[in-house]
Each structure stands twice: as C-alpha cells, then as structure tokens.
Amino acid sequence: MPHKNHLNTARSSIRQALSWYSHIRRHPQPFAEVKHKAALQTELEGLRGTLEKLDREIFRIAAFGLVSRGKSAVLNATIGRDILPVGPINGVTQWPRSVQWMPEELPFPEINQQQKTSNLVVELIDTPGLDEVDGQARSQMARDVARQADLILFVVAGDINRTEYDALCELRAAGKPIVLVFNKIDLYPEQDRQAIYEQLQSLSRNSGGWVNLGQKTDLIAKEDIVMVAAEPTAMQVRVEWPDGTVGYEWETPPPQMEELKEKILEIVRREGRSLLALNALAQARDAETNMASIAIEARSKQAENLINKFAGYKALAVALNPIAVVDVLGGSVADLLLIRSLAKLYGLPMTGYEAGKLWKQILFSGGGLLVGEAGSGLLLGLSKSAAAVGGATGDGVGLSAYAGAAIAQATMAGYGTYKVGQAAQVYLERGCTWGPSGSNTAIREILSQVDEGTVCDRLRQDLLQHFE
Ligand SMILES: Nc1nc2c(ncn2[C@@H]2O[C@H](COP(=O)(O)OP(=O)(O)O)[C@@H](O)[C@H]2O)c(=O)[nH]1
Ligand SMILES: [Mg+2]
C-alpha cells in the first residue's frame, strides 16, 4: 500500500525534525534573546500542528477565487447540501469555514479490505473572495488557508483577470495542487464556453519568480480544468398547455457537477494520502529552513568569532608549513572542520557525509574563488617549498622568498576560510532539509514513486525546484 507508506515517510521525517529542533533549545548555550526563543517556539508549534493533521489524516480541500465566482455554491453542490451561505451580494462569506464531507462514494477499496473503513477525513474549506477582505488581512488569510490545503479548487466564472492569474501563478510556484473550476457555464452558449475553456487551457505561467527556461509551461494542465454549473439561473421556458394556450414559466436547470465530483473523488482516492504527505513535508521544509535561520541569527556573534579563529589558524598553519601539497590538504581539512564546528555551534543536524558534500558544493560554487585558492595555493606552496629547499642551503634570498610566498598564501588561505564560513551559513539554512530523513529527501522519495499523469506527478517540478 504505497499511499500508507508515503504517510509514514512524512511522519517520520517530521518527527525527526521536531526532535532535532526541540533539541536546539537544550543546546549548551541557549539562545540569549527572547525574540529568537519565541520565533523558534512558533515554528515548533506549527510543525506539531502539521504532524497532528497528518496523524488524523485530514485531507483539506479549499475553494479559492474572487468574490461571487460561486465558491460557496460549488462546495454546496459538491456535498449536495446547502450548508454554506451563498448570495448575490459581495461578502456573503466573511471568514474561512469548513465542513466535513463523507461521500458514500469515497471508500478506499484497497484499505477497506483490511480496516473495514477508511480513516481519511475530507474537509472542505470555504474562503472569502481573494478580493474581499482588504489588503494585508486578505493576503494573510489566503496564504494561511492555502498553506493548509492539500488540494485547491480555484473557482472562476469565465475569462480570468489579472488578480486571478497572479494568484494562480503564486499557488503553482508554492507547489500547490490545483483544480481549476470553470463555474457558471450555464451563462454561456456552447461556443463561448468552448472558447473560454480553450483559453484557460492555453494559459502559460510566468512571474512569481519562476524561471522559465525558454519552454512554455501550462499554468494548469488540461486534465485539471473542469466545467461546472453549481447553481444555474432559472430560465424562462415556453410551455404549451393541454388546452392549447401558450405560457411562459421559470424553470431552474439542474446543477452540472458530476465531472467535478468525480474528479475530486478520484484524486482523493488515488493520491489523497500522497498529497497529504507532500503538503505536510513542504510545510515542514519551510519550518525547518526558518528554524535554521533563527538558530544562525541567534548565534551570529559566536559564529563570527569561530570563523575568525579558523581563518587565523589556517593562515598560520599554511605559512609555517613548507610542503605544498600538505598546505592544500591541511587547508581543506580546516575548512571541513569549520563547517562541522559551525553546524555544532548552531545545533543544526549535519552528518560528516553531509558536511563533506556541503564542502564540495561550496568549493565548486564559490565562483571559482576557492578552486582558485586551492590552485594558487599549490603554486605559491610550490615556490615556498622550493624557497625552503633553497633556504636550507643557508642564503638569505631563499628565506625572504619563502616569507613572501608564505605571506601571500596565508592571506589567501585566511580569506578563503572566511568565505567558506559565510557560504556554510547560507548552505546550513537549507542543508538541514537534505539529510537522510530530511523533508527534501522525503519529498524526493515520494515523488519518485508517484504514478505518471497524476496530480502528484504534475507537482514534481515545483516541489523539486528547491533542490537547485
Ligand atoms: N448562473 C449561475 N450563477 C451561479 C452559479 N453558481 C453560483 N451562482 C451565483 O453566483 C452568486 C455568488 O455565489 P457564491 O457562491 O456566494 O459566490 P462566492 O462569493 O464565490 O462564494 C450567487 O448569486 C449564486 O447564485 C452557476 O453555476 N450559475
Ligand atoms: Mg462565498
């Protein structure tokens, strides 16, 4: 049962993160400032909430969109009951509200055999329009709900405008699975309806800081666009009575919701657990990165001292050592030690293997600076070695040549260490999610197991971009 495994993968990764970061607080040198303690506490609580949602197997579906596009109506029609307030005036829905959905069609055949009932709980969340609550409050509300949602029903009612487009791009960039719901199709003649549908399909993405390497990427895959009419308007129909008289009557056509309902059920059934796991891990990844930043900021003073100390040691060791190759090796070992000492100082998880990987990455990514250091270090070291050999014969020229080369090389070595220290901080912030049970590793593992053509599969690019 791969779906179950995905939940377990996510759970153990998040438990591990929780224990690591709770441990930061018990570090020999606790955070000095209250603001750092508080910030860490908030992140830890968020992470605990994420784990709890995962344990209770709550699958959240949130309706998103501008005001009056029919979000509440779509949710009502999906569950087949008028629970959520719907209305023609703006602002009927003021706050996010949630209802539980227990469709008879939901049973998970493969799980039922063993457990009789499925324990995945589906929760539908209705939100105010993205343009309804103003300014700061709106974007914050939208972001909070989106973060929690395992699937987003983005409701539009025809051609989309700029606000809708931007919101869609943002959600996609955050790696959110989206079903684009084209509602109120009863208002369009067949031809217009098709034209709009095609337009929605051909939307491609940009903005949101997402780099498009020359190729056009669909904003929403064709399979994820569904046309519905949640609450069709009454139409006047011509009626011929038996007595021959002709009259007009108002008639309300039935809602057209089957396709959407099927789509949602299929997603929940087929990949609900994987989506739940991926969403929890994406949230954990953010929390872990934030906690690493907090730890790094809280100990910045001590880190600076540590880096300076290492730079000094390395410069001294390099200057005093007459053998070129040992210089370069010794310098590298010092850098590696620095990386490990920094990780220890911050209290961030890092194994020796990861430290080595990180060091290599820093070596090759520092714009060639460190490779340059190693290369010129070798050259200077050679001339220093040569001078040392010459100096051994006792002439003063050899000695001053040695000193010159040694000082130049030592300066560079010191600077190199300083750079390594800086880069290590940057990498440590993200690197903590890469470990054997880190959230990024878990995300990658789950994505490597999802079926082609699924919603999870289409999330791959957005969820993995954090690796680059
Ligand atoms: N013609 C038509 N009107 C709809 C449809 N769905 C919703 N509406 C109407 O659109 C208005 C806004 O609906 P509501 O669900 O409150 O929108 P929300 O603000 O997005 O939650 C209401 O007057 C609904 O009756 C539909 O499929 N067709
Ligand atoms: Mg509403």
In short:
This protein is of the alpha/beta class and 468 residues long. The protein has helices at residues 2-25, 34-55, 71-79, 109-115, 135-148, 162-173, 190-201, 258-298, 300-320, 324-346, 352-365, 369-392, 396-431, 439-447, 455-464; strands spanning 58-64, 97-101, 121-126, 151-156, 178-182, 225-227, 235-240, 246-251. It is elongated.
Any overview of this molecule?
Helix content is 59%, strand content 9%. By secondary structure, it is of the alpha/beta class. The protein folds into two domains: 2-294 and 434-467, 3-Layer(aba) Sandwich (Rossmann fold); 299-431. The strands form two sheets. It has a six-stranded mixed β-sheet, with helices on both faces. Strands 7-8 form a two-stranded antiparallel sheet. Residues 109-117 and 207-214 have low confidence and may be disordered. The structure holds guanosine-5'-diphosphate (GDP) and magnesium ion (MG). The site of guanosine-5'-diphosphate has 23 residues, from helix 3.
